[in-house]
Amino acid sequence: MEIAAAVGTERLREVMADLADRCAAVVERYCGTVDKFTGDGIMAVFGAPVALEDHAVRACLAALGVQEEAKRLAVEVHDRDGAELQLRVSLNSGQVIAGEVGTRALGYTAVGEQVGMAQRMESVAPPGGVMLSESTARLVEHAFVLGEPEMAHIKGADAPGSARSRAGFR
Questions:
Q1: How many CB atoms neighbour CB 140 within 10 A?
Q2: I want to staple 7 with a disulfide (CB 3.0 to 4.6 A). Which of 11, 50, 114, 125 is the partner?
């Protein structure tokens, strides 16, 4: 959040709102569901509440689209504010609990170990890049050219896990 110090709170709100709108539009373009905004992040799910056989491919396409939108916005922010804007994106695949949580109208969400893992992976993803868990990489390796597996220490994991950064399309 170095950008917060560089642009001030009101401008940060404007940038974050613009970024959130752009990200949500990309997620929806690929039939994903924006689950929540997490202060300086966004969480989206693919394959819930509507099952999608190609959920991992759609998530990858959305992740690449989000990075493209972030790069466009980064140019505007740099030109206007002199600040650098870069996102870290991570994708993880696995079973989650999805649906309404609690008895109050808190809304649809996804929870579980795989959600937490994706969030922790984001902290070690390369700025401007997309990091995939091995479970996601296996689901999309037929559709994308992936970077070589890298060992990454993910907080809360029993052992370092293998993750890949996106290298391009096939």
A1: 22
A2: 11
Side chain identity, residue 110: A
Q: What crossing angle do the helices spanning 55-81 and 9-29 adopt, rounded to 10°?
A: 150
Q: What is the CA radius of gyration of the chain?
A: 16
Query: From the CB of residue 136, how many other CB atoms can be counted at a distance below 10 Å?
Result: 27
Tokens representing 105? 């109208």
d(C-alpha 11, C-alpha 149), whole Å: 38
Give the whole-angstrom CA distance, residue 135 versus residue 153: 16
Tokens of 162: 């293998």
In DSSP terms, which residues pair with 151 in a beta bridge?
162
Model confidence over 25-45: pLDDT tens digits? 999 999 999 988 877 788 999
Closest CA to 55 of 64, 63, 45: 45
**For residue 34, what are its two tokens?**
């924006």
Place of tokens 């804007």: 85
56 with 140: CB under 8 angstroms? yes
54-96 pLDDT tens trace: 999 999 999 999 999 999 999 999 999 999 999 999 999 988 7
